[in-house]
Amino acid sequence: MGRSATIERQTSETDITLTLGLDGDGSASVETGVPFFDHMLDAFGRHGLFALTVAATGDLDVDAHHTVEDVGICLGSALSEALGDRRGIRRFGSAVVPMDEALVLVAVDISGRGQLHYAVDLPIEIIGTFDTTLAREFMVALTTSAGITLHVRSLAGDNAHHIIEAAFKALARALAEAVSLDPRVTGVPSTKGAL
To answer: Which residues contact 134 (CB under 8 A, 6 or more apart)?
Structure first.
């Protein structure tokens, strides 16, 4: 499958196999043992039109932190690998996604520099078995491993489920735009000649 990558990561805390196809159809098969996180990853695959498969086991008897963070590391690594030399990509992408009362803006630059700028007004609570603070931990791991600059801003909302889901969907749409190929772009979209 064209632009795709499979990442395997085994530590004393997690065992993960993740495959990402950038030019997919939105199909996702996700099992992490954290149902709300599975729902978010499924939404990410579907709304980014990626092909995403995640099989993860982790030390959920401790909590979901290691699983969520390590999946973020794997997804970022897969994104970077699937992009290859970055020739012909649009590089930048953004999306504003509503979900009921929530509204989230995400902007991404496939810059080669891993940075997260996260301004999300989010109640600290548990959604199922998912601690809402883990949404940020996932984004940190993703951006660092992928080498992308990511801005996430909540513009409205008071329901944590809605805010996080809007963020994952906006991330998917912004990334889909940034990784898409533009026939007018020759080489790497940077004045430096490298990303």
So the answer is: 37, 64, 65, 68, 69
